[in-house]
From TrEMBL:
This is HINT2 protein. PANTHER family: HISTIDINE TRIAD HIT PROTEIN. Residues 23-131 form the HIT domain. A motif (Histidine triad motif) lies at residues 115-119. The gene is Hint2. InterPro entries: Histidine_triad_CS, Histidine_triad_HIT, HIT-like, HIT-like_sf. The lineage of its organism: Eukaryota, Metazoa, Chordata, Craniata, Vertebrata. It comes from Spizaetus tyrannus. It catalyses: adenosine 5'-phosphoramidate + H2O = NH4(+) + AMP. Belongs to the HINT family.
Length: 131
């Protein structure tokens, strides 16, 4: 059940509406430990605690946005920044042969934490189609 079960639990708890502290806001505040790979004034990058590939890290905005489907034109620069940081971190992590970027949205997208996050997975040949 794993990630899908977590997504169902989070949706049932009403977490998709945002406004509640998440594990990611606690990582940003340093009240929960994480292996941080990069940080600037807009975002934080850290290793996934349950990696699905040899290299698996998350890129999150410091400003809480619950879902990618909730972004607007005011978020364009931030979203671009997250992608640039993902690419630079992937390079620093040795993913020259490629990697996958994933954003889950909502219950059917298996989003388990309602704070926008970009998964970066690599270090092996990934299959297609995913899921």
């Amino acid at each position: 059940d794993g990630e899908v079960g977590e997504a169902r639990r989070a949706a049932a708890a009403g977490e998709e509406s945002g406004g509640q502290p998440t594990i990611f806001s606690k990582i940003i505040a340093r009240s929960v430990p994480a292996t941080i790979l990069y940080e600037d004034d807009k975002c934080l990058v850290f290793r996934d605690v349950a990696p699905q590939a040899p290299v698996h890290f998350l890129v999150i905005p410091k400003r809480p946005i619950p879902r990618i489907s909730r972004v607007g034109p005011q978020d364009t620069e931030l979203l671009g920044h997250l992608l640039v940081v993902a690419a630079r971190t992937a390079q620093a992590e040795g993913l020259a042969d490629g990697y996958r970027l994933v954003i889950n949205d909502g219950k059917h997208g298996a989003q388990s934490v309602y704070h926008l996050h970009l998964h970066v997975l690599g270090g092996r040949q990934l299959g297609w189609p995913p899921g």
